[in-house]
Amino acid sequence: MSYVSNVVKGTCPNCNKTKVFASNGNPLLFKMPKMKMKCDNCGYSFHRETGFYFGAMYMSYALTVAEMVAVFVLGLLFGWSFMTMFILVVITILLLSTFNYKISRLMWLNLFYDKDEQE
Ligand SMILES: [Zn+2]
């Protein structure tokens, strides 16, 4: 349960006190979320190693595909035209891009968190 709550709240996997991201970003202003280097409270490093978040890209891809399928299914239910569905899918993935970026990195960070690991 801690995994899900840490990902949803966006807090440090080690102490659950501070936020992992310093800013939320804004897809309308083309601003990506900014991640802190380490936890302000316990000093846990959010940048584990070079290329650590490469795998988060696959999680982001999976989330994006799920969102696209969800919009497509809505389109089928409401009988939208193919062009309407296409435009709404593009708008949806653009608006959710910063959300996907954040949530995939939080999922990846929490997935590889080991509480017994000593630094
Ligand atoms: Zn912490």
TrEMBL record:
Q: Which residues cross the membrane?
A: 52-74, 80-101
A Pfam family matched by this chain, by name?
Answer: DUF983
Keyword annotations: Membrane, Transmembrane, Transmembrane helix
Check the record and name the InterPro entries matching this protein: DUF983 (IPR009325)
Name of the protein in its database record: DUF983 domain-containing protein
